[in-house]
Amino acid sequence: MTVRFDITDGLATITLARPEAHNALDVATKVALAEAVQNAAAPEVRAVLITAEGKNFCVGQDLGEHVPALEADPATAMDTVGEHYNPVIRRLAALEVPIVVAIPGACVGAGLGIALAGDIRVAGTKSSFATAFTGIALASDSGLSYTLVEALGSSRAAGLMLLGDKVTAAQALDWGLVHRVVDDADVLETARTLATSLASGPTRAYKQVKSLIARSGLSDALDREAQAQTALGQTVDHRAAVDAFLAKKRASFVGM
């Protein structure tokens, strides 16, 4: 089981449970995550907590699984964006109740997209954030072209997406990327306390708050990202970069 789901006293908890792979997202995990988010829309749920087992929240796509898809057909290798990532983000965006995200360690790529689909983010002092897509000759998915700009503004978002910079927990707090930074050992408990409080609060008022700040442009961004990733997934640079990453070598790009 790569994703655990539980409802207790109105709080739905979704846990990424693939710590041996740093919670990298293979197909099984993406399907299970989409199902868990769908289950979180149950009437008895009044708040949602998303967290992860192990030292890292999520390092994004499982590239080891991605290579066979590239070998089989580069034209369809990025279908996972529309089939798996977009449903997860759309379902998270559709949840009317507050979403708290507990972020241990690294939060990268699609993992960052998932975190930004939440409402309140709690990180540890050693947490870090990155997009990582251009490092493997891709653009972005999981809504980052919209949510990252919304969170940071276009200049900082462009810097992170183009340069692949890593953001520390302190920077993330200063920039407004996270709500709170605590000791690493306290991340889950702090987030759970916040989520539990929200689950026992004025649910209808919270729903109205979320409605008032709804992200109306996210759906269009998801569609554009899927188109871009499909095209980029067929490039020479993307395949070479994935191979280099898995071989722990530096990628060499030719611009094609």
UniProtKB/TrEMBL annotation:
Species annotation: Rhodococcus navarretei
Family statement: Belongs to the enoyl-CoA hydratase/isomerase family.
Transmembrane annotation, as ranges: none
Source organism, top-level taxon: Bacteria
InterPro entries in the record: ClpP/crotonase-like_dom_sf, Enoyl-CoA_hydra/iso, Enoyl-CoA_hydra_C
Name of this chain's protein: Enoyl-CoA hydratase-related protein
